[in-house]
Amino acid sequence: MLKHAISALKKELLNKCAMSSKKRVQPPQIISFAVTERCNARCTTCDLWKPCEKEELSARECLSLLSQLRAWSPYSVINFTGGEPFVRSDFSEILTRANNLGFYTTAITNGIVFDAKHIDSILATGVNYLNFSINSIDPDIHDSYKGIKGLHARIVEATKYIRSRNNRVRICYSPVITRDNYKTLNDFVLWARETGADIVDFIPILSSFGHNVRVVGPAFAWAQDPLFKIEDLKELDRQIDLLIHKKKIGFPIVTPIYYLEKMKLYYRDPASVPPRKHCYIGLKNMYILSNGDVKLCYYFPAIGNVRAQSLKEIWFGKTAQAQRQELFRCSRPCICSALREYALRDKISIFLMRARLL
Hints:
With 358 residues, the protein is α/β, with parallel strands linked by helices. The chain is built from 14 helices and 11 strands.
């Protein structure tokens, strides 16, 4: 636990001065590892489930990457994503290895495989944090978003079962704010707590992450999506203000206060969100895609592929260094969740949450 805390603090401090001092950046703090782009849901807010020909990394290649990370960035957080990571028949092996190597592991899932037959085997992997993508307290709304009837009930039952068998793994519910759920955001927090979730993290609807990802720019094409169109913006403001109040008095809302405030502007006009002075995403985050491409930011080109170079060579290579300078100067309006800066109170809360598990 102490080694993880010291490592995170050290990287945070050194990365703050990396650009200005021109010194070598530190290994990544957070690795998002998309082990597949296949998915067994049909979400309206995502394109990843649509057919695309990509050669996924094999289990052997995935395990090799974990060993590489252990050698030079042993105290990173590995966030397994997809698609739906649990559609891989060998994902349990990959997840188990990551935990055995000492990483803090999270898995983002739609919950389809979380039935009584599979939950115990999933928990046996040692996963630290399960993030369920659940969009509403209303089963009909949620299931219509996912294209799977009965999925809402399955996630609720899975949460209750996990809580009855395992108090170590943390459970997060992550609703995407849309026209269909913005009036019940505060009800969602209360409902999630009653259901057994530990944490709630609100996410804005963004460009549909898929094979034809829309580059962030002045057009903000996804803002034309009917799901983005919130009719009563004053009610949205009221809901967000209540969320901020709940967070201040101790409700387990991990979304930073300033980020919640930004959503008021974002749903009025995405271009009105003030850009960050400097973007540090290329210093802290690494994205490994299912075909082995490595990115610093989802919206920028890949900086290499693990089938041609090691992760360490890619991270410290010339292409990565040049792109970091470009990212550092990026002034596009952006509300990417990977860029969220947490207040000291949030950092302590997140640390304590993880400390129970390490």
